[in-house]
Structures are given as structure tokens and as C-alpha cells.
């Protein structure tokens, strides 16, 4: 395959990966990592293997953090273990709902329902806990976005031979 076509394919995957960090229909950093790997091994790039390892680790960390951070910030905002568990369960259930942003709606519903199951009389606490989960989602998405942009920049700069 022509190097130009491989470079275009890599850039498309990297851009789609960045979009996927906040659009749930795309697998985010996995697309970006795929673009990076195709670039490294599909061209005669001198990109050091260190980049592959670092971005592979960051991609794996991001996948874990996208579940852990909302549960942790839920607790920071007064939530209980019930809300944290609800966050994880709601996210997983929401991924299978045939609605846009199902995973996000599931996460928030899970936190809210978990907190209400713990204390059905304190709706204000359940709302604060859900707010914490939302802030955690923003942190996790921000981390993924930064990693995706970094992968894109590494490939573009290598294409321009600046690395």
C-alpha cells in the first residue's frame, strides 16, 4: 500500500479516536492507538517504540479511569459505596441501552438510584453524589482527550520529521 494512503488512514483513525473520547459511539483511544500502530509498523517511520509503549499504557489507564474516576468523585461529593457501585453498574447497563449516550445516562441513573437505595429520604445527597459522578466523567474524558491529541501530534510531527 502506498505510504501516502497509510498516512491518510492513520490520520483519519487518530482524528476519529479524538472524537471518540467524547462521542460514545466510537471506541476513542483504541482508534487512536490503532492509527499510531499502523503508522509505526505500516510505514518506514523512525518513531521510537517508547511512544507505542507509553500510549498503550495510557490507553489502558484511560479505559480503567473512565470507570474509576466517576465512582471516586461521587464519594468526594458525599456519595456512598452504594452510589459508586451504582455508577459502575449503571455505566455497564447503559452501554447496552439502544439510546444515545446510554452509558452516560446509565452512570448518572446508577449513582442516583444507588444513593436512594442507601437513603431514600435524602434526595439532595443523591443529587450531589450524581454531580460528583458528572465531574468525574469530565475529568476522565479530559484525560482521554489529551492522550488522543498527544498521539495525533506525535504522528503529525513525525510525519513532518520533527521528532
Automatic annotation (TrEMBL):
InterPro entries: DUF456 (IPR007403). The chain crosses the membrane at residues 6-38, 50-69, 89-113, 134-157. Keywords: Membrane, Transmembrane, Transmembrane helix. This is DUF456 domain-containing protein.
